[in-house]
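Entry 14. Ran structure prediction on the chain below.
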Amino acid sequence: MNKKMKLRMPLLAAGAIGLGGLGMGAALVAPQAAFASTPTTYQATLNPLNNAQGASGQVTLVLNGSQATITEHVSGLAATFDGKPYPHVQHIHINAQGVCPPPSADVDHDGVISTTEGLPFYGPIGTSLTLTGSTSPAAGTDLATMPKGSSFNYNRTITLDSATLSSLEAGKAVVVVHGLDPSTLSAKAQSEKSDIVPTLPLAATSPALCGPLVANQVSFTPSGAASTGGGSTSNVQDVALFVAGGALVVGGATVLAARKFRGLGSKA
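Output, structure tokens:
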């Protein structure tokens, strides 16, 4: 290998290192973009309302764009209605306070918080959690498409409308499962008709379970966060600056080597 070829080798190596450093920077920054597109998970613990003692439930909603995959398990609800499995209408309620109603919501003092008495707290129907067909608010009282019985598992992927999406992201979406055992209600409440479907008794459409949907808090704190501000973007910026600095150093070394090469070449 002659002198000129020997001198070219460090230049080639330096260039390769510089390109490799830039490639490493792209590889390190790329996961941040991938992380930003990760689906968001929301969860709700369903607690009993209106003497629905022993009833409980859990809901998980995984949101990817406008597509929501909803998984739910409910148990301890009223089992039968007119001798048949009890149809429990259920919905995501939106655009109110994003909470379940307290006992004081029973403004007519019949011992039952009706659906409309709960509206100031959980809001109107945004999405109906039907088994099949439409999920619009209009399907909210379609008994034929709702889960039935004292316990059930629900799993469906649906498209959420803009109103439900906005309420969900604002922390104001609440899952409500309706349908009470009439025998647990006061005599006055047992004689009353539903406030939303007058052909049904009050028990059939009054809320039995309720729970706000809350986003899971997933955070990543890089080591040395105290000195970088601790933000998720500060780590990426530090990496980018480090790579850029490394590229400048390598570039400077390459220029110096090139000048030396030219000086030696002129002497050869």
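DSSP finds seven helices and eleven strands in the chain. Will compare against last week's run tomorrow.
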